[in-house]
Design goal:
344 residues; four-stranded antiparallel sheet; 10 helices
């Protein structure tokens, strides 16, 4: 009834001030179980459109949705609803494209930068819009084309794809959810494309490139705080094997999207601030498995971090699984690093 009333005021009667007042009252009183009123207000704002309420009220609703999305006291399903509404309302994290500097020279011989978040749908859409799936583009090798085509023949319609496998699936395709349904080769092509884009814009040097992270780089970004009881200030893998990125061996479902939340889908990349690593890298546990640059002895590339389908035991920092490089799974995505070309 509230949605109909707000829509009638804003769209039919064109009384945006009155519609805004109704939203304001709902935000003030927040009737019902925790989180439901804010979700309702967000749905109403989406329904009436950008001009349906005054700008100040719109900003207030967006702020309430952001707070709810990241509030550990709100049930996961309503946190997710708030995040999806923000994405559909066009509210993106201002640091979505940010890279986090990682001091690793002492351990790896070089420092690097890593994506603060996994690559999201809206970021991958730029690649698609730039003709990313054109087979004659320089970022595709014939081996990649052949293997993706083979996958399509086995699991889809046999045609060369024009986007990720789950591009049209509402569970996975909102702007700030991590892109999924992309093979290792598609992730590689995105990295080559992004290298050119960032060089052209002066955001990386000509002596730098974008690529998938090596496992050692990914682990370095996931290091717990130096004062963590388990880390003892160490930077080696043994210090973080059975810890979560927030520096504890104790799992906390309010910090990551795993099986325990029972969401059965990906969440916006900015939903879990308390799950960030000490360096400030988000979503390293759960949500999506992330392709890496390293391959195992069975000739499969490693994926890191665990996904929303996995339980907490499979989302510690040492979690990894090997997979066919052409596999386009619903809980597999990636993030990128910027490194000196000499360490590409």
């Amino acid at each position: 009834m509230s949605l109909l009333a707000i829509g009638h005021l804003a769209v039919v009667q064109r009384r945006d001030g009155a519609a805004g007042d109704v939203l304001g009252k709902l935000l003030e009183r927040r009737p019902g179980p925790p989180g439901e009123a804010v979700a309702l207000v967000g749905e109403a704002l989406l329904d009436v459109g950008a001009t349906g309420v005054p700008a100040a009220r719109r900003a207030q609703v967006l702020a309430a949705l952001r707070a709810q999305m990241q509030d550990r006291a709100i049930p996961p399903r309503l946190r997710l609803a708030a995040g999806i509404l923000l994405a559909d309302l066009g509210d993106l994290p201002p640091d979505l494209d940010a890279f986090v500097p990682i001091a690793a020279a002492a351990q790896l011989g070089y420092d690097f930068r890593i994506g603060k978040y996994p690559v999201s749908n809206i970021q991958f859409r730029r690649f698609v819009a730039a003709g990313g799936y054109g087979q004659k583009q320089p970022w595709w090798k014939q081996k990649a084309i052949d293997e993706i085509m083979d996958f399509q023949k086995r699991f889809a319609d046999g045609a060369w794809p024009d986007g990720p496998r789950y591009w049209d699936n509402d569970r996975f395709n909102h702007a700030t959810q991590p892109v999924v349904g992309v093979s290792w080769y598609e992730a590689l092509a995105y990295c080559k494309w992004l290298t050119g884009e960032l060089r052209q814009k002066g955001k990386i040097g000509q002596d730098e490139e974008v690529r998938l992270p090596r496992e050692a780089e990914w682990m370095r970004a996931a290091l717990p705080p130096s004062n963590s009881p388990r880390s003892g200030g160490r930077a080696d893998r043994a210090a973080v094997d059975d810890l979560y990125p927030w520096g504890s061996a104790d799992f906390d479902p309010a910090r990551a999207n795993t099986e325990e939340s029972d969401l059965k889908q990906t969440t916006p990349v900015q939903m879990y601030p308390e799950g960030a690593s000490a360096a400030g890298v988000w979503d390293l546990a759960g949500n999506v498995w992330e392709w890496s640059a390293d391959w195992n002895e069975d000739k499969y590339p490693w994926l890191k971090g665990g996904g929303f389908w996995d339980n907490s035991k499979n989302t510690v920092t040492s979690s990894r699984v090997g997979s066919d490089p052409d596999f386009r799974n619903f809980n597999g995505g990636f993030r990128v690093v910027v490194v000196p070309i000499s360490h590409g």
